[in-house]
Write the structure tokens for this entry.
Amino acid sequence: MSEIEAARTLKINILRFDPNDPNDFPHMQTFEIEESAGMTLYIVLNEIREHHDNALMFDFVCRAGICGSCSMLINGRPGLACRTLTSKMDTNITLAPLPLFELIKDLSIHTGNWMRGLNERLETWIHDKEHELNVDKLEEPMEPALADEIYELDRCIECGCCVAGCGTIQMRPDFVGAVGLNKIARYHLDPRDKRSDEEYYELIGDENGVFGCMTLLGCEDVCPKDLPLQSKIAYLRRMMLKVAL
Amino acid sequence: MGIKKIDKTPARLDFLQSFTGLVLAIFIMGHILFEASILISNEMMYRVTIMFEGYYFFGETYPGIISFLASAIFIIFILHAGLALRKFPASYKQYKTIKEHTKRMKHEDSSLWMIQVITGFIMFFIGSVHLYIMIAQPSNIGPFASSSRVVDELMGPLYFLLLLSVISHAFIGLYRLALKWGFMEGENTEISRKRFKALMKLMIAAYIIIGLASLAKYTYIGLTHDFSDGVKYKSETINVGEDK
């Protein structure tokens, strides 16, 4: 075998902790894994669980960057394990759970209840008082360009990377974060949602909302779905200012 | 069903912070260039000075105009500082959180914000000193008077620190403003952001070089000029003041 083809040995350092075990404390554990072709961190974690430590906990469902479960801090930056190729990284890799979310164990976190709280707070569903109960009525047709624009923002998988990548929300946990602002931008675009600009202002027109954003742009730069978060937040900021002028 | 009255203050505060920042940044861009007139000649710097003192409008110099302008800038400066204070870490815990976050992320824009906080904090103090002196001694501006202030009154080190702080703060601030409000946002925001950032770095470098060169010239004049007959500059062509 030539030198170029020789497999690298990856050193995977994982922050481990079980908050439900009173005798446990947060500590780093290192595993050595032989790299294989096309390997992602998701495959690495499976290897570790199969051959080294079957107690290691991490979340996964789809393996394809669609479910948003395997988000974690990869060398300090939020990202999806299943979308991260080891071939593009140094052999020394450090993994930790995303901050801010409730820790279940090791790399497994409860993004679900956090996101549910956010969705309830921002009421991220279509508001239409007049047609609330009429499920038989045909929907109004929509321009394909607008439908595409809404769909673009609907691609959010609630992985929590933008939350973990945001310095503002780390300092001030009541801040709504890019995931919430993106949802508001999405419903504001949607002609089926009849909420007025004033009603949107009620939701995000304060320092826990769009005016709390300090434009650190961590969200924009770590979003695994490449959502246009910076420009949507700017759009909401302009719109909310217009309401207040 | 009537809609509850919304509180418009958060939006206005956010806008005002951006707006005062924009005014101050534009002011600084002019300030550093006007002050760099010393690099052309003493006479040029003198003419710029008396222009701001109203000579070309009234045929007479009124240093009070400088006091007035400096006071206006001071008020905007205080307003901007007060508004920006809302964004500062408010406790040791918050400070530690953002510091560790920035260190962990190795993310340029997050780190740039830390520079904004640090330079902003520095300028609360040294910016105020500079502005107060300009309000209190408006007539002591000129190729010799300013040089004497830099050297004999030991303002050099303060100006050096102020220059580095204000230039980085102003241009990082302008870059952030553009992204915050979506100013001149192209179809591809990634490209427009990259261009803004490159422009920001270029402007910081250019203004720091110009500023340092002017400061060096004032220091040189301060060290070599004979101040035995005062700090007033005597122009060869323009005759202002008592002996007219």
In short: Chain A touches chain B at residues 73, 76-77, 165, 167, 170-172, 196, 198-199, 201-202, 205-207, 209, 211, 213-218, 221, 228, 230-231, 234-235, 237-238, 240-241, 243-245 (CB under 8 Å). The CA atoms of residues 84 and 171 of chain A lie 28 Å apart. Residues 229-244 of chain A form the longest helix (16 residues). The radius of gyration of chain A is 21 Å.
